[in-house]
């Protein structure tokens, strides 16, 4: 039987664990985006060997499940931290294991290639006419990238970035397997202690859905507002206006008054 009282009681501990879930999601997403930018640059490197190596790296990261990364990082934390502390003549204590930080790194590492693909697809979606227009307005390459190309890439990438973000949000539930007490881990502990698995997992599912809906609507709002910058000529006119030199004010010479001359 479904115990309604235990169902409502399970909400409070899961809500208390929500900040941990959000920290895992936001931090790993930011790190994955930064890593994706670097990987995208390396995958488009003019040197063929470097480009090929990092394409293989991208394929490798895509092929490894997130849970494998979490387990590998979990079992290697102590040895890695011991060596790092030894470099600074410090003693590492197992009581202060940075499990959360390693989980963030594992999640970010799993999504770096997807962020790189997002950036590359956004760049390739820019029409060649945008580059030609920037050259016609005498923009330098850096001005063209930062004031015309990158803003349009950002708008194009918003939908894919939103999808990756909410997927990372759901992927954080896997971190409970390495003893991180986020929403899913807290729900599992509550269910085990009270033997109310259906009630706890149902409450956890509803809270995940609530957080998902909030971020889904947020990214839809951002996409809608940013979409106006993709209107034909909008960015070009705006950036041309910023770099256009203002017309000089010509001060007319004061003509002598004939009455004063007399």
Key words describing this protein structure:
262 residues; 12 helices; mainly alpha; 76% helix; disordered C terminus; MetI-like fold
Structural write-up:
- The chain has 262 residues and is an all-alpha fold.
- The chain has one domain: MetI-like (MetI-like fold, Orthogonal Bundle), CATH 1.10.3720.10.
- The protein is built from twelve helices and no strands.
- Helix 3 crosses helix 8, helix 7 runs antiparallel to helix 8 and helix 9 runs antiparallel to helix 10.
- The longest helix has 31 residues.
- The protein starts with a helix and ends with a helix.
Note the topology.
Layout: H1 4-9, H2 11-16, H3 18-43, H4 48-63, H5 66-87, H6 99-124, H7 128-136, H8 141-171, H9 183-194, H10 197-226, H11 234-243, H12 258-261
Helix pairs in contact: 3-6, 3-8, 4-6, 5-6, 6-8, 7-8, 8-10, 9-10
